[in-house]
Amino acid sequence: MKKKLTVLLLCTMVAAAGCGSASSGKKTESAAQSTASAAAGEDTAASAAESEEEISEQINLSSAEDVKAAGLTDSELVEMAYYLEDGEALSDGEYPSDEDFEEDLDFSDQLMVDVESAPESAEMPESGKYDSFIQLADYKGLSILLAPDTALEEGMTANIDYEGTIDGESFDGSSDSNFDLTIGTGAFIEGFEDQLIGHKKGEEFSISVPFPEDYFEEGLAGKTAEFKVRINSIYDITPDIALYQLVDDSKVLQYPQQLLADWRASMIADIVSWGFETFSTEEMMIENSYGSEEAFDSNVRYQTKSDLVCRAIMDKEGITEDSEEFTAAVDNALASYDLADLESAEAEGWSEEFIKLTARERICQDILVANCSQAG
Fold this sequence. Notes:
Distance between the termini: 50 Å
Number of domains: 3
Strand order of the largest sheet: 6-5-8-7
Strand content: 5-15%
Oligomer: single chain
Helix content: 40-55%
Largest sheet: 4 strands, antiparallel
Order of helices and strands: HEEHHHHHEEEEEEHEEHHHHHH
Number of helices: 13
Radius of gyration: 24 Å
């Protein structure tokens, strides 16, 4: 099913407010809030009627000729191009081709998740009874960490702590701990990753890395930073990938209806926070964000399955949601999104279910590492 052009055009109406985008891990305000801000001081009733008329006219745009007929400006075309699969901006006066509409905007298959079908249950799993809901793959003895004497090579992922200074002073982004860095990705400035090659788990050392003369932050351009680095571990696969594989290898025996409903509601709330609530029906929101109801439902089932796997592992390890460990994991999840608490998370468009799943996933990743074949 082809993605309607509606979402692209509607986002241009509130582009100044950042509709449908996210920055630095934070979700932007909803399109309704953005539109309200932009329309302050205007004739609200007239604006609403005009917007509704525009929506009805644009809802069926599906070809380059339709776009031309709509008389879009160059800035609107550039905004629209951001949503195309290739992500390339259109030059002034250039319209997307019919091929763009046929290929780039037909995206439901890309968002379809391969997840098993299973009966639904009116019951929610209780402690010690997850085996009737999820056939959990073996989560102990996985190949996650490489042997302690492994020398770091390009393509490997290292978990590192680092602290940088220039002339003895720290700078923005100069330090972090437990950071997973895949060597060769260019995630750090040139020269940083190369100097980690050959080092092993537990080694602590210092490196010097010059910032390029044309570095975007003028205060750092051309200066040399000194970094203290510690290699905490070297991965065969990272814990998050290990957990994804474990979810794939596990099998759902029955889906709790309440958990499915919770995740569907959570994901609808996510869609609204992206700015899609400008559509008049839930079906239109789903179609314009996931391409089809089928793709959306597959994602709901996968999130439910992932949640079941994490809950089952925590249950086997005796970790409850009222434990200090889980509370700390929720706090860490909130902090990673620059959120103070669950109430402020909800206000920013982050559902409580998502924050708690993030906490469960991180707890389970730690469990996988602690029980992997090279643990210790």
